[in-house]
Protein backbone atom coordinates (compact mmCIF):
# COMPACT_ATOMS: atom_id res chain seq x y z
CA UNK A 1 0.00 0.00 0.00
CA UNK A 2 2.85 2.34 0.87
CA UNK A 3 4.51 1.70 -2.51
CA UNK A 4 1.23 2.18 -4.38
CA UNK A 5 0.70 5.48 -2.60
CA UNK A 6 4.10 6.76 -3.58
CA UNK A 7 3.46 5.83 -7.23
CA UNK A 8 0.09 7.57 -7.14
CA UNK A 9 1.59 10.74 -5.68
CA UNK A 10 4.33 10.66 -8.40
CA UNK A 11 1.79 10.39 -11.23
CA UNK A 12 -0.26 13.23 -9.76
CA UNK A 13 2.83 15.40 -9.51
CA UNK A 14 3.71 14.79 -13.17
CA UNK A 15 0.15 15.62 -14.27
CA UNK A 16 0.18 18.79 -12.18
CA UNK A 17 3.50 19.86 -13.69
CA UNK A 18 2.18 19.27 -17.19
CA UNK A 19 -0.96 21.29 -16.48
CA UNK A 20 1.08 24.15 -15.03
CA UNK A 21 3.34 24.06 -18.07
CA UNK A 22 0.39 24.34 -20.42
CA UNK A 23 -1.06 27.11 -18.30
CA UNK A 24 2.24 28.92 -18.45
CA UNK A 25 2.22 28.78 -22.24
CA UNK A 26 -1.34 30.02 -22.32
CA UNK A 27 -0.36 32.91 -20.10
CA UNK A 28 2.14 34.22 -22.65
CA UNK A 29 0.28 33.71 -25.88
CA UNK A 30 -1.72 30.54 -26.21
CA UNK A 31 -0.55 27.49 -28.15
CA UNK A 32 2.98 26.27 -27.56
CA UNK A 33 3.69 26.21 -31.31
CA UNK A 34 4.68 29.67 -32.61
CA UNK A 35 2.34 30.95 -35.34
CA UNK A 36 3.86 31.18 -38.84
CA UNK A 37 5.17 34.64 -39.78
CA UNK A 38 3.13 36.57 -42.29
CA UNK A 39 4.92 36.41 -45.65
CA UNK A 40 6.23 39.78 -46.75
CA UNK A 41 6.15 40.62 -50.46
CA UNK A 42 9.57 40.72 -52.05
CA UNK A 43 10.57 44.21 -53.19
CA UNK A 44 10.50 44.70 -56.93
CA UNK A 45 14.02 44.79 -58.37
CA UNK A 46 15.16 48.19 -59.55
CA UNK A 47 15.18 48.13 -63.37
CA UNK A 48 18.52 48.68 -65.06
CA UNK A 49 16.93 51.19 -67.43
CA UNK A 50 14.87 54.08 -66.09
CA UNK A 51 12.44 55.17 -68.79
CA UNK A 52 11.85 58.52 -67.08
CA UNK A 53 15.24 59.98 -66.05
CA UNK A 54 15.16 63.27 -64.16
CA UNK A 55 18.09 65.01 -65.88
CA UNK A 56 19.72 64.99 -69.33
CA UNK A 57 23.15 66.03 -70.62
CA UNK A 58 23.93 66.07 -74.34
CA UNK A 59 27.34 65.59 -75.99
CA UNK A 60 28.23 65.50 -79.65
CA UNK A 61 28.65 67.74 -82.67
CA UNK A 62 26.86 70.39 -84.75
CA UNK A 63 23.69 68.34 -85.13
CA UNK A 64 23.08 68.47 -81.38
CA UNK A 65 23.90 72.20 -81.45
CA UNK A 66 21.23 72.59 -84.18
CA UNK A 67 23.74 74.28 -86.49
CA UNK A 68 22.03 76.07 -89.41
CA UNK A 69 18.58 75.17 -88.08
CA UNK A 70 17.54 78.77 -87.34
CA UNK A 71 20.03 80.99 -89.12
CA UNK A 72 22.85 80.68 -91.63
CA UNK A 73 26.15 79.27 -90.36
CA UNK A 74 25.30 79.54 -86.67
CA UNK A 75 24.30 77.31 -83.77
CA UNK A 76 20.69 77.34 -82.55
CA UNK A 77 20.73 75.29 -79.32
CA UNK A 78 17.14 76.23 -78.50
CA UNK A 79 16.17 74.02 -81.47
CA UNK A 80 18.36 71.08 -80.44
CA UNK A 81 16.70 67.67 -80.61
CA UNK A 82 18.32 66.78 -77.27
CA UNK A 83 17.85 69.76 -74.97
CA UNK A 84 16.20 72.59 -76.90
CA UNK A 85 13.23 74.57 -75.60
CA UNK A 86 11.59 75.22 -78.99
CA UNK A 87 7.96 74.02 -79.01
CA UNK A 88 8.40 73.21 -82.71
CA UNK A 89 11.02 70.61 -81.81
CA UNK A 90 9.66 69.24 -78.53
CA UNK A 91 13.12 68.03 -77.59
CA UNK A 92 13.96 64.84 -75.76
CA UNK A 93 14.58 66.79 -72.54
CA UNK A 94 11.22 68.57 -72.77
CA UNK A 95 9.40 65.31 -73.48
CA UNK A 96 11.05 63.63 -70.48
CA UNK A 97 11.20 66.48 -67.96
CA UNK A 98 8.61 69.00 -69.06
CA UNK A 99 9.47 72.53 -70.16
CA UNK A 100 10.35 73.81 -66.68
CA UNK A 101 12.28 70.68 -65.78
CA UNK A 102 14.25 70.78 -69.01
CA UNK A 103 15.25 74.37 -68.33
CA UNK A 104 16.65 73.37 -64.93
CA UNK A 105 17.90 69.85 -65.49
CA UNK A 106 19.29 69.58 -69.04
CA UNK A 107 22.63 70.72 -70.43
CA UNK A 108 24.13 70.80 -73.91
CA UNK A 109 27.90 70.20 -74.11
CA UNK A 110 28.01 69.40 -77.82
CA UNK A 111 30.37 71.48 -79.99
CA UNK A 112 30.02 72.26 -83.68
CA UNK A 113 32.83 70.55 -85.57
CA UNK A 114 33.48 67.99 -82.83
CA UNK A 115 34.73 64.51 -83.67
CA UNK A 116 34.86 61.34 -81.63
CA UNK A 117 38.28 62.36 -80.31
CA UNK A 118 36.56 65.30 -78.60
CA UNK A 119 33.98 63.14 -76.85
CA UNK A 120 36.04 62.20 -73.77
CA UNK A 121 36.50 65.87 -72.91
CA UNK A 122 32.82 66.64 -73.41
CA UNK A 123 31.91 63.66 -71.26
CA UNK A 124 34.16 64.91 -68.46
CA UNK A 125 32.29 68.21 -68.47
CA UNK A 126 28.91 66.53 -68.60
CA UNK A 127 29.50 64.25 -65.60
CA UNK A 128 30.00 67.25 -63.34
CA UNK A 129 26.25 67.80 -63.61
CA UNK A 130 25.58 64.19 -62.53
CA UNK A 131 22.95 63.60 -65.22
CA UNK A 132 20.82 60.49 -65.14
CA UNK A 133 20.85 60.31 -68.95
CA UNK A 134 23.60 61.28 -71.39
CA UNK A 135 22.81 61.54 -75.12
CA UNK A 136 25.56 60.93 -77.67
CA UNK A 137 25.45 61.91 -81.33
CA UNK A 138 28.85 62.11 -82.97
CA UNK A 139 30.68 60.69 -85.96
CA UNK A 140 29.58 62.73 -88.98
CA UNK A 141 32.64 64.98 -88.73
CA UNK A 142 34.91 61.95 -88.51
CA UNK A 143 33.70 61.02 -92.00
CA UNK A 144 33.33 64.60 -93.28
CA UNK A 145 36.99 65.39 -93.92
CA UNK A 146 38.85 67.08 -96.77
CA UNK A 147 39.42 63.68 -98.40
CA UNK A 148 38.44 60.10 -97.59
CA UNK A 149 42.02 59.33 -96.57
CA UNK A 150 41.72 61.92 -93.78
CA UNK A 151 38.74 60.22 -92.15
CA UNK A 152 39.16 58.98 -88.58
CA UNK A 153 40.36 55.35 -88.54
CA UNK A 154 37.75 52.95 -87.22
CA UNK A 155 40.13 51.71 -84.51
CA UNK A 156 40.68 55.25 -83.19
CA UNK A 157 36.94 55.92 -83.34
CA UNK A 158 36.31 52.83 -81.22
CA UNK A 159 39.06 53.63 -78.71
CA UNK A 160 37.78 57.15 -78.07
CA UNK A 161 34.19 55.98 -77.71
CA UNK A 162 35.20 53.30 -75.23
CA UNK A 163 37.29 55.82 -73.31
CA UNK A 164 34.32 58.18 -73.12
CA UNK A 165 32.02 55.52 -71.69
CA UNK A 166 34.66 54.37 -69.20
CA UNK A 167 35.05 57.95 -68.01
CA UNK A 168 31.29 58.24 -67.55
CA UNK A 169 31.04 54.91 -65.77
CA UNK A 170 33.84 55.73 -63.31
CA UNK A 171 32.14 58.96 -62.31
CA UNK A 172 28.49 57.87 -62.58
CA UNK A 173 28.09 54.08 -62.46
CA UNK A 174 24.31 54.22 -62.87
CA UNK A 175 24.07 56.92 -65.54
CA UNK A 176 22.24 55.89 -68.70
CA UNK A 177 23.42 56.55 -72.25
CA UNK A 178 21.43 57.02 -75.44
CA UNK A 179 23.56 56.65 -78.57
CA UNK A 180 22.31 57.92 -81.93
CA UNK A 181 23.62 56.44 -85.15
CA UNK A 182 25.57 58.55 -87.64
CA UNK A 183 23.26 59.86 -90.40
CA UNK A 184 23.35 58.46 -93.92
CA UNK A 185 25.60 61.08 -95.51
CA UNK A 186 25.14 59.75 -99.01
CA UNK A 187 21.38 60.15 -98.74
CA UNK A 188 21.91 63.73 -97.56
CA UNK A 189 24.06 64.34 -100.64
CA UNK A 190 21.38 62.92 -102.93
CA UNK A 191 18.74 65.18 -101.37
CA UNK A 192 20.77 68.37 -101.11
CA UNK A 193 22.29 68.28 -104.60
CA UNK A 194 18.88 69.19 -106.00
CA UNK A 195 19.26 72.71 -104.54
CA UNK A 196 21.52 75.23 -106.34
CA UNK A 197 21.76 77.25 -103.13
CA UNK A 198 22.69 74.17 -101.15
CA UNK A 199 25.50 73.32 -103.53
CA UNK A 200 26.85 76.86 -103.28
CA UNK A 201 27.00 76.58 -99.49
CA UNK A 202 28.68 73.19 -99.75
CA UNK A 203 31.58 74.92 -101.51
CA UNK A 204 32.35 76.68 -98.21
CA UNK A 205 33.71 73.37 -96.97
CA UNK A 206 30.73 71.42 -95.60
CA UNK A 207 31.62 67.73 -95.64
CA UNK A 208 33.94 67.88 -98.68
CA UNK A 209 34.69 64.16 -98.65
CA UNK A 210 31.03 63.48 -99.50
CA UNK A 211 29.71 66.79 -100.86
CA UNK A 212 32.69 68.04 -102.87
CA UNK A 213 31.98 68.36 -106.61
CA UNK A 214 28.38 67.26 -105.98
CA UNK A 215 27.35 66.88 -109.62
CA UNK A 216 30.26 64.63 -110.55
CA UNK A 217 29.15 61.09 -111.33
CA UNK A 218 32.33 59.64 -112.77
CA UNK A 219 33.86 56.49 -111.32
CA UNK A 220 36.27 58.40 -109.07
CA UNK A 221 33.46 60.47 -107.55
CA UNK A 222 31.31 57.38 -107.03
CA UNK A 223 34.20 55.55 -105.38
CA UNK A 224 34.89 58.54 -103.12
CA UNK A 225 31.31 58.72 -101.89
CA UNK A 226 31.05 54.96 -101.47
CA UNK A 227 34.24 54.98 -99.39
CA UNK A 228 32.81 57.63 -97.08
CA UNK A 229 29.52 55.79 -96.82
CA UNK A 230 31.28 52.55 -95.89
CA UNK A 231 33.16 54.38 -93.15
CA UNK A 232 29.89 55.72 -91.74
CA UNK A 233 28.54 52.19 -91.65
CA UNK A 234 31.70 51.03 -89.85
CA UNK A 235 31.29 53.83 -87.30
CA UNK A 236 27.72 52.76 -86.64
CA UNK A 237 28.86 49.20 -86.14
CA UNK A 238 31.29 50.45 -83.48
CA UNK A 239 28.57 52.47 -81.75
CA UNK A 240 26.28 49.45 -81.70
CA UNK A 241 28.92 46.99 -80.46
CA UNK A 242 30.40 49.19 -77.74
CA UNK A 243 26.97 50.25 -76.49
CA UNK A 244 25.87 46.60 -76.36
CA UNK A 245 28.65 45.92 -73.83
CA UNK A 246 27.03 48.39 -71.42
CA UNK A 247 23.97 47.40 -69.37
CA UNK A 248 22.80 51.01 -69.21
CA UNK A 249 23.34 52.00 -72.83
CA UNK A 250 20.78 52.08 -75.64
CA UNK A 251 21.70 52.44 -79.31
CA UNK A 252 18.97 53.67 -81.64
CA UNK A 253 19.27 50.54 -83.78
CA UNK A 254 20.32 52.60 -86.80
CA UNK A 255 17.13 54.68 -86.74
CA UNK A 256 18.87 58.01 -87.48
CA UNK A 257 20.92 56.40 -90.26
CA UNK A 258 17.78 54.86 -91.75
CA UNK A 259 15.63 57.98 -91.50
CA UNK A 260 14.90 59.42 -94.94
CA UNK A 261 15.57 63.10 -94.46
CA UNK A 262 13.74 65.04 -97.17
CA UNK A 263 14.22 68.68 -98.08
CA UNK A 264 11.75 69.66 -95.32
CA UNK A 265 14.01 68.04 -92.75
CA UNK A 266 17.19 69.70 -94.05
CA UNK A 267 18.44 73.22 -93.36
CA UNK A 268 17.45 75.65 -96.09
CA UNK A 269 20.85 77.27 -95.68
CA UNK A 270 23.10 74.26 -96.20
CA UNK A 271 20.85 71.33 -97.19
CA UNK A 272 22.93 69.08 -94.96
CA UNK A 273 22.24 69.76 -91.28
CA UNK A 274 18.74 69.07 -89.91
CA UNK A 275 16.21 71.88 -90.06
CA UNK A 276 13.88 72.60 -87.15
CA UNK A 277 11.60 69.98 -88.63
CA UNK A 278 14.51 67.55 -88.88
CA UNK A 279 15.47 68.24 -85.27
CA UNK A 280 11.92 67.33 -84.24
CA UNK A 281 12.24 64.01 -86.08
CA UNK A 282 15.51 63.30 -84.23
CA UNK A 283 13.78 64.07 -80.92
CA UNK A 284 11.05 61.58 -81.80
CA UNK A 285 13.60 58.84 -82.51
CA UNK A 286 15.46 59.50 -79.27
CA UNK A 287 12.31 59.60 -77.14
CA UNK A 288 11.03 56.39 -78.68
CA UNK A 289 14.32 54.62 -77.90
CA UNK A 290 14.70 55.98 -74.36
CA UNK A 291 11.14 55.18 -73.30
CA UNK A 292 10.83 51.77 -74.97
CA UNK A 293 10.05 48.94 -72.53
CA UNK A 294 12.83 46.92 -74.10
CA UNK A 295 15.76 48.17 -76.21
From TrEMBL:
Q: Which Pfam families match?
A: Lipase_GDSL
Q: Where is the signal peptide?
A: 1-27
Query: Which GO MF terms does the UniProt record name?
Result: phospholipase activity
| Sections of the chain in a coiled coil | none
Q: Which InterPro entries match?
A: GDSL (IPR001087), PLB1 (IPR038885), SGNH_hydro_sf (IPR036514)
Keywords attached to this Swiss-Prot or TrEMBL record, sorted alphabetically, are: Lipoprotein, Signal
Q: Which residue stretches belong to region Disordered?
A: 30-54
Q: Which PANTHER family match?
A: GH22081P-RELATED, PHOSPHOLIPASE B, PLB1
Q: What is this protein called?
A: Lipoprotein
Amino acid sequence: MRKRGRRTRGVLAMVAAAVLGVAGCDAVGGDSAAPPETARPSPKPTPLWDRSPSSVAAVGDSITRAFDACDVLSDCPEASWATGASPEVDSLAVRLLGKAGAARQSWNYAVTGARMADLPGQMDRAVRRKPQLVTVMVGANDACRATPSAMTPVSAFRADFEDSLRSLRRALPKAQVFVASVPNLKRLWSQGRTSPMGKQVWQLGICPSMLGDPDALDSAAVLRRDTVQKRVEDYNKVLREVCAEEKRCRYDGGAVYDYRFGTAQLSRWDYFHPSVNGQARLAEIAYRTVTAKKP
